[in-house]
Each structure stands twice: as structure tokens, then as C-alpha cells.
Fold these 3 entries.
Entry 1:
Amino acid sequence: MNIKKNISREDIAETINNEFGYARKECLEIVNDIIDIIISGLESNGMVKLHNFGTFKLKQKKSRLGRNPKTKEEVMIDDRIVVTFKASKNILKYLNT
């Protein structure tokens, strides 16, 4: 498997296709369904926990003063909601071995 910096939905679907032999279109539908489930869980509960993988949470960030690094111009960044991810202990253990 090639190591890439970014992985697209199509890349995940391709891996499922290669590993399990499902049709490429079905694999892409599976990936899209999983992502849709995560998004709807965040919308309804503000948190989605995937056992042995990690937890997605919504976090409210306050407005703050930011700076454009190129022009040094100060700009007010509005308050917003962001998605955070905390990896499970199993994932961290795997990555740190």
C-alpha cells in the first residue's frame, strides 16, 4: 500500500474493493454511508465514538483576533464550531510501536 499524506473517499473505497472484492460503486456507497452516519451523529449528539478507533466531538471556539501572515493585517476571526478527534488508546498504542 502506498503511503499518502491525504486519503480520499475514493482511496478508501479502492482499498475495500481490493481487500474484499466488492464492486467499486458499492464500496464508495459504504464509505459515503459511514461518513454520513458520523456527520448525523455529530449533528444530533455533538459526539460520535467509534470503539477501538476514537471519538469525534464538536467544540465551540470563541472569536479572536488573528493575523494574515503575508500582509500582517489583523482580522477578527468569528466564533465557530469545529470537529475534534481524539484517537483511542488502541490506535495510539499501534502508532507508537
Entry 2:
Amino acid sequence: MLLSFSDDLLNWAGEMAPEFLRGRNMIEPQIYDYDFLSCAIDTITGDFVQASHAEKKSVVCFTVNENIALKHALSCKVDGIISDRPSWLRREIDQHFD
């Protein structure tokens, strides 16, 4: 799996290692023709996630380190969450889904 802000790198990886899943990292939400998309939590929206899912693209968000950001990510129905605080995130997710 390769995640990058660089289209050149992602396209090169697709040629060199087509078995890799490729994901486009971005600050502002936009649908790209990669296997999955990764968007900043500050700009992600539920509409973007829904549109991405309609295009058969999974969506992860970054960087979720606080409760308000986690609530936003969950309300947008993202497929994955990136955090600098994995122990905290695990506790919060476990509490949310208990």
C-alpha cells in the first residue's frame, strides 16, 4: 500500500508495482482515480465520503487527535482514521462502539 501527495509517484508505483494499492493524500477533498483517498480531517465532508463511496473508493482521514475531530470523522462515515495518538484513538473507538 502506498499513500502519497504526489501523483507522479503514485503513477510510477502503478507501473512498477501494479499489485500495490495506491492512495492519494490531499488537503482539500477531491476524487482521484486511485484505490483509496486520504483527506485532512479539517476539510473532509460527509458528501465527499458519500461521493467517493459511489465511485467505489475508500476514504481515510488524517490527523485525528482530539474528540471533536473523531466525532466529525465518524459522522462523515470514513473508512479509516489516521492518528498520532493510536492508544487514545483505540480507547475512544472502543467506548463509542460499546
Entry 3:
Amino acid sequence: MPRINKTRYALLGFLSMESSTGYDIKKHMEQSTNHFWREGDSSIYPILRQLLEEGLVHCETETTIRGKTKKVYTITKNGQTELENWLVKEPEPFQSRDELLLKVFFCCNVDADITRQHVEKLRSQL
């Protein structure tokens, strides 16, 4: 089974709060979820297109005051159901790239005191 990009749920979540453009979603993310879920244009726009193709969002083109067009996305009933079904599932274990753990893994290559210092520094920061 193909792995599902969880960013789709972040986008559906933002659209469940209000209809938005991709740019608006990115700005909302920067102000709220950025410290634990960060996405850039290269992820947001392709996933919005995918959600549109799947019928999970609806898109209307609006003209701005300056005469430019923008795409405003709205979550559909199917999109809301998809979001709710995901929210009730158990989350997958947190996965992250962690340089400290990588250094601990290879610590046999240096004096144990160096690794101990790295761990203690993180401990004091936490």
C-alpha cells in the first residue's frame, strides 16, 4: 500500500477552519504549526491539486482588486469526512532525524565523555 503524505490532513485541517488560497494556508502554517509541521509551496500546491482531483476540496477562481486571479479552496463534505476519519485513528510514532541520536549510535568512535557532554547539554536545555 502506498504511503500517504500526512500533509494532506494538515491542508484539510486548515480548510476546515476557513476557505483559503495556498498562499494563505502557508501563512497560517508559519504562524501556528510551523514548529511541528512545516510545509513549503513545493508541497502545498501539488497536494491541493491532488485533493481537488479526489473531490476532497472545491476550488473557485476569484479576481483580486488588482485584477489578478487566485484560487480559493474549500473543503467538501468528503474532505471533512476524510479529515475526521484520520483524526480518530491512532497517530503513527513520531519520526524525526536526530543528530544527537546518530552521534550516540556511533559513539564507540570517540571518548565516552564527549557523548556524555552532548547528552548533558541537551538535558540542560530541556
